[in-house]
Amino acid sequence: MNFAPGGKLRAAINLGNPILAHAAGDGGAGGVSVDLAREFARRLGVDLELVVVDTAGKSVDAVATERADIGFFAIDPARGADIAFTAPYVLIEGSYLVKDDSPIRANENVDRAAHRVVVGKGSAYDLFLTRELRQAQIVRAPSSPAVVPTFLEQGADVAAGVRQQLEADARARPGLRLLDGRFMVIRQAMGVPKSRGEHAAASLAAFVEEMKAGGFVAEAMTRHGIEGASVAPPG
Fold first, then answer.
1. Taken in order 107, 109, 113, 115, is the CA torsion positive or negative?
2. What residues contact residue 175 under an 8 Å CB cut-off, 6+ apart?
3. Low-confidence ranges of the chain (pLDDT < 70)
4. What is the average pLDDT score of the chain?
5. How far apart are CA 218 and CA 226, in angstroms?
6. Cα–Cα distance for residue pair 177/230, rounded to 1 Å
7. For residue 117, how many other CB atoms are within 10 A of its CB?
8. How far is it, in rounded angstroms, from Cα 14 to Cα 11?
9. How wide is the angle at C-alpha 10 spanned by C-alphas 5 and 12, nearest 5°?
10. Chain centroid, CA 112 distance in Å
11. In this predicted structure, what is the pLDDT of residue 1?
12. Per-residue pLDDT tens over the stretch 203-235
C-alpha cells in the first residue's frame, strides 16, 4: 500500500461544494475536506499537496487518472469504475429552488416536459437527476456555484443543488424560494484510485470510520460553521 508514491499525499479538493471546501486567502483551500486530508497525511507521515479544482467532475477525473491520490466525492455508481469509495462521512441535502411566482410548489411537480432544471455539470445532482428525471430537460451550468446565475440568465424553471448554497443564493437575491423537503441525500465520501488495491481502500475506509466515531468530522463541521449537513452514521 502506497498512498503517496511521489513522497507527498495529493488530495483533490473541489471548491464547488461550499459545505466541504472553500478558497483560502493564500490561494489554497480550507474546510472539512482539507482538514481530513491534512490529518490523513499527518498519519502517513508525509506532506500534503492540494489539487484544487472547481467542479466535482474535475475532482473525480484527478483521482481516476491518478493525478491525485485521494479525493472527496458524493458516492455515485457512475463514478465507481476507477475509484474505491469509503462509507460516507457527511450527508448533504439536495434541494430545488424556484422563483417566487413559479407555479411549482412541490418536488414532485418538477419533472414535467415543459420544465428546465439547472444543475452543476458533473455534480452528484447532475448524475442523479440524469437518471431520475423522465420529462424535464436538464441544463448544465459550468459549476455548482454557477447554477443560480445560470438559472436566472436563461430563465429556467428550477435550480438544483446543495441546500446550503441555494439558501445563500435565495438570501442574496430577492424573489427566490426553496421547495420544501429534499429530492436526494448526498453521501459524501473519500475515495482512492482502485489501482492502489484493496488494502489501500480498506485503510482509507477505516480512517473515515475513526474520524466519524472520534468526533473529528463533527468538530470540523462546527469549526467551519457548516449547516445543512450531518455526520454520516457508522459505515
1. negative
2. 99, 100, 101
3. 1, 27
4. 93
5. 10
6. 23
7. 24
8. 10
9. 140
10. 26
11. 53
12. 999 999 999 999 999 999 999 988 778 999 998
C-alpha cell, 173: 437575491
Do residues 99 and 175 make contact, with C-beta atoms less than 8 angstroms apart? yes
CB atoms within 10 A of CB 195: 11
Rounded-to-integer distance, Cα 85 and Cα 189, Å: 6
The three cell numbers locating residue 38: 491534512
- Output the DSSP codes for the chain: --S-TTSEEEEEEETT-TTT-EE-TTSSEESHHHHHHHHHHHHHTSEEEEEEESSHHHHHHHHHTTSSSEEEEE--GGGTTTEEE---SEEEEEEEEEETT-S--SGGGS--TT-EEEEETTSHHHHHHHHH-SSSEEEEESSGGGHHHHHHHTT-SEEEEEHHHHHHHHHHSTTEEEPSS-SEEEEEEEEEEGGG-HHHHHHHHHHHHHHHHTTHHHHHHHHTT--SEEEPPP-
pLDDT of amino acid 69: 97
The rounded distance, in Å, linking the Cα atoms of 21 and 118 is 22
Cα separation, 105 vs 194, whole angstroms: 43
State the pTM of this model: 0.80
Q: How far apart are the first and last CA of the chain?
A: 22
